[in-house]
Amino acid sequence: MSAFNDDPRANKPEEDPLADEVSCRILNHEVGGLILGITEKRLQTIRIRPNSSAQIQEPGTILALDDSTIINDVLGLIRYRNLSTNAQGSLPEVINLIIKDNPEPYLSFYNRAGNLSLKMHAFAILPGIGNKKALEMVDLRGRDGWEEFSKLDADCGIDGAKLLADRLAKEIADPHLEPRLVDLLLRQEE
């Protein structure tokens, strides 16, 4: 891996921010260009130098980070603002695919979320969810919560994975957005 990263999260000494990552999803890959991706475990945007013989990879495709048939070098993290327009555009849908393929850490948000303040529930930070809908969701959740997104969606009349993917994409785009679900759900040790 190259020592250069344009993302400040990578500037911590002695720690490889991608050490525990095994795969990513493709955000963008153009002929003769870098592969831009997002890691599946911690949703970190990365740059990859492909082999010259590598076929173009479609957005959403899973890529093992040790796949030497496609990858020449994992270059490191990349800031959202330095992603191509196509990569930025595919981010919400690719995160949605990650959530649907590995729902456990994301369902935990719906099953454990509580009040952020006396007037606001954590559900209300999701796009299109107001305080009234958030309180209704808490009642529908009950004590046991949801085991699948399909049940959550049916109970609440929402697309829970898409709402969460949209929120996480906004947080990746704006590192100052608070509270940060991406940190609470996936990056606690950072």
Mean pLDDT: 90
CATH class descriptor of the largest domain? Mainly Alpha
Counting DSSP H or I runs of 4 or more residues, the number of helices is 6
The amount of beta strand, in percent, is 5-15%
The 3D shape can be described as: elongated
Described by its quaternary structure, the protein is: single chain
Indicate the low-confidence ranges by residue numbers.
none
The first-to-last residue Cα distance is 20 Å
Helical coverage, percent range: 25-40%
CATH topology of the largest domain: DNA polymerase, domain 1
Return the structural class. alpha+beta
Strand order of the largest sheet: 4-1-2-3-5
Number of domains: 2
Could you give the order of the helices and strands? EEEEEHHHHHH
The tally of beta strands, per DSSP, is 5
Rounded to the nearest angstrom, the radius of gyration is 18 Å
> Major beta sheet, specifics?
5 strands, antiparallel
| CATH architecture descriptor name of the largest domain | Orthogonal Bundle
CATH superfamily of the largest domain: AF1531-like domain
